Model the fold of this input.
Amino acid sequence: MSEKKKHKVFVNGAISPQFIADSIAKHSTKTTIGAHDIFLGQVRSDMIEGKTVQAIDYSAYEEMAEEKFYEIREAAFAKFNLTCMHIYHSLGKIKAGEICLFVFVSSQHRAAAFEACRWITEEIKAGVPVFGKEIFEDETHVWKVNN
Done:
């Protein structure tokens, strides 16, 4: 069942392993849940034109992005039999190896959790106005292409 209040999605800085662990731990009291699925987006140290990405500096048109996240959330609850869902996306400079996207879904059964997590992640990548500048070791940058 969907909660109608909008949840803040953006966090400043990287999403820590402790935050992820705490999120999982909070669900142990919800005994109607039989499955969780998680997607963690991590910044890669890609090579682009001979330079290595050291970080991505994420920015967003926050009001529009938060609305789009809300639309994705509501559509996912309508499309899949979910018990719970959380989405967090980083803003600011996130170093290679750090987590920048955390999608966490829960349902009574694994199939719904698997399908919903993938669908939500693809919808985020395709339609949410979040922008990233890939920053290289020499502090030059290029705008990231979503793929």
Notes: The chain has one domain: 10-143. Residues 10-143 form a domain with the Aldehyde Oxidoreductase; domain 3 fold (CATH 3.90.1170.40). The chain has a mean pLDDT of 92. The longest strand covers residues 82-95.
